[in-house]
Specification:
Length: 122
Amino acid sequence: MAERYQLAAITNGNIHLARQPLAAYFPVAIAAGELLAPKPDPASFLTALSRLKVAPECAMHVGDSWQEDILPAQQLGMHAVWIAETGDQTLPPRVHRIAHIKELPQLLESLEKRHSGGVYNH
């Protein structure tokens, strides 16, 4: 995915992301202590967007916490993908659900087929 999309990592964990094996795929990485504003504070999302030079409406945040990932992304106008077991609740516009991260490429492909522009073709 790193060949096709600009990727950023935002974590509330206290790990040094640059030292992790996946760091090569995430040119932008923000850890909780860096901004003193852990998720769901919008500062980490806005910092990632700024570093990527991407507007919120052209970005997609993927996370497993409704409160810390999906709600703040939605409030900023971002698209969001919630990694959670399937449920019956209706999701808000621009929010999608997958059961496992392995489903993300298929979701993105499906969304790209339905849309001609915006986040899905950047």
